[in-house]
Amino acid sequence: MSNRTITLTLAGCLALSGCQSGTITGATGRTAEFGCIAGTVGGAVVGGLAGATIGSGTGQLWAVGGGAVLGSAAGSALTCA
């Protein structure tokens, strides 16, 4: 995997984590901001790395992007209340 692909994947993960709201409260009444953001970013990273194993060339870049988007959505669904 090239440095450009890794850089683009990480930049996308950071951009997606900026979309998270900071006012989420968990069952205990405390804000669950860190867990929600960590789950979303972690899911994006794992999804992007999984997508990097598929295909080659432009198809691989699409797989990385799609994996990052789907991974962030899954991570957000699992960790955000």
Salient structural properties:
single chain; 81 residues; mainly alpha; 0% strand
Tally the helices: 3
Strand fraction: under 5%
Radius of gyration over all CA atoms, rounded: 14 Å
Shape: elongated
Give the beta-strand count: 0
Q: Give the SSE string.
A: HHH
Low-pLDDT stretches are none
Helix- and strand-based class?
Answer: mainly alpha
Mean pLDDT: 77
Separation of the first and last Cα atoms: 34 Å
The biggest beta sheet is recorded as:
none
Helix share, percent: over 70%
Describe it for me?
The longest helix has 22 residues, at 58-79. The radius of gyration is 14 Å and the shape is elongated. It has 81 residues and is mostly helical. The protein contains 3 helices and no strands.
Gist?
By secondary structure, the protein is mostly helical.
Record the SSE blueprint.
Blueprint: H1 3-17, H2 33-52, H3 58-79
